[in-house]
Amino acid sequence: MKYVIAIIRPERLEEVKHELQKVEVNRLTVSSASGYGEQKGHLEVYRSLELEVNLLEKLRLDIAVNDDFLQPTIEAIKRGAKTNTGCIGDGKIFVLPLEDVIRIRTGETGSDAI
User: Fold this and answer.
1) CATH number at residue 6
2) Phi-psi category of 51—alpha, beta or left, where left has phi over 0 and alpha has psi -120 to 50?
3) Structural domain tally of the chain?
4) Burial letters for 14-52: b for 16+ Cβ neighbours within 10 Å, e otherwise?
5) Neighbouring residues of 114: CB distance < 8 A, sequence distance ≥ 6
6) How do residues 25-50 score in pLDDT, each as one tens digit?
7) Confidence (pTM)
8) Which of 1, 5, 18, 70 lies in disulfide reach of 98, CB 3.0 to 4.6 Å?
9) Residue 75 dihedral angles phi and psi, to the nearest 5°
């Protein structure tokens, strides 16, 4: 089992969800995130004042998958999140080992609980 964390642009969420549904990954958690990478923020003008915005709004997707769903999940996220602009900031995918999962309602554990 693996735990996939993806950081994506907010405007790409619907496309990522669509791509995940195509590969039968129908369970995910989405939360707001702020941060910066290579972009290091941007400059905004507000009421004639220039403000440096260091933290950019992103979304964090958390997905637990069985090993046989890992590669399709990664490819689906990549297809959905990529903007094809050639610019930095499309996001990152992190894959972590997942030791155990427990479904609270039934008590199922491991791969059965995913």
Assistant:
1) 3.30.70.120
2) beta
3) 1
4) ebbbebbeebebeebebeebeeeeeeeeeeeeeeeeeee
5) 1, 27, 64, 65, 66, 101
6) 999 999 999 887 776 666 667 777 77
7) 0.85
8) 1
9) -65, -40
